[in-house]
From TrEMBL:
<dbReference type="InterPro" id="IPR013103">
    <property type="entry name" value="RVT_2"/>
</dbReference>
<protein>
    <submittedName>
        <fullName>Uncharacterized protein LOC106780425</fullName>
    </submittedName>
</protein>
<feature type="region of interest" description="Disordered">
    <location>
        <begin position="110"/>
        <end position="130"/>
    </location>
</feature>
<feature type="domain" description="Reverse transcriptase Ty1/copia-type">
    <location>
        <begin position="2"/>
        <end position="104"/>
    </location>
</feature>
<dbReference type="Pfam" id="PF07727">
    <property type="entry name" value="RVT_2"/>
</dbReference>
Length: 130
């Protein structure tokens, strides 16, 4: 269909020109995200794909590859609210105190010998999840 695969991201294919009729396809295993500057071209692409493959059109973008999208007055907002909530539940932190940053600025840490050492595996799981 004369798409060009992007060199930096092999799952992204582009057709057309940004000034006219741009069509962008993001492909990951069996998930397909279609975006473009011309709704007619998007619909034509979807018809071709539906004729060739068994597909379901989920409508406007709300969720893709673990990322959530919300439509606002100023545009599309990308977030991971659900994932963050699942992490808090998984590590029993739903009642933790909120903070703007990961750590208080200029905080001096000291070892508390009266407490048990933190579980190294759990700490690695939390960091890996972030």
């Amino acid at each position: 269909m004369k798409f060009t695969r992007r060199a930096v991201e092999h799952g992204v294919y582009v057709k057309g020109d940004i000034k006219k009729d741009l069509l962008i396809i993001c492909l990951y295993v069996d998930d397909l995200l279609v975006a473009g500057s011309n709704p007619t071209y998007i619909n034509e692409f979807k018809k071709i794909m539906e004729a060739e493959f068994e597909m379901t059109d989920l409508g406007k973008l709300t969720y893709f590859l673990g990322m959530e999208f919300t439509y606002t007055i100023v545009g599309l907002m990308l977030h991971q609210r659900k994932y963050a909530g699942e992490l808090l539940k998984r590590f029993n932190m739903t009642l933790c105190n909120a903070a703007k940053g990961p750590m208080e600025a200029n905080l001096k840490l000291m070892k508390d010998d009266s407490k048990e050492d933190a579980d190294e595996t759990t700490s690695k799981q939390i960091i890996g999840s972030l």
